[in-house]
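User: I need a structural model of (4Fe-4S)-binding protein from Belliella calami for a docking pre-check later this week. Nothing fancy, just the predicted structure tokens so I can convert them on my end. Input:
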Amino acid sequence: MKEYSNGEVTITWEPEKCVHSGVCVKGLGEVFQPKEKPWIKIDAATSEKLVNQVKKCPSEALGYYLNNEDKEIASSTNEQIVEVIPNGPLMVYGNIEVKFKDGHTERKSKSSAFCRCGSSQNKPFCDGAHKKIGFEG
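Assistant: Understood. Predicted structure tokens for (4Fe-4S)-binding protein:
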């Protein structure tokens, strides 16, 4: 995991989780610049804007914690929202519990991307395979 801090908030990035959806770049391009090193320019936006954008990460590759609080920060909402992304995953925003076919469960907060194309190697979660196969739906 890599961390980028502005002293007030620390953005975490787990590259192995990233599905390269581009949500971060499209939402806050002055901060998230994947062709640059370092690719996160944390001082290019306020802490509030950073946190709001990180919460939209579909794979949870991006995370955050406030430097003066616990590293575990749960979503402040109990509401769940489901969004069908055209030609992409099913996005679920909010606190949820995923029950797997083997019986184990995993708690998710912020946002989660679920595969709709059937080609993900990380089912039930999206791994970006829909782009490779030209999924339409």
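Before docking, keep this in mind: The mean pLDDT is 87.
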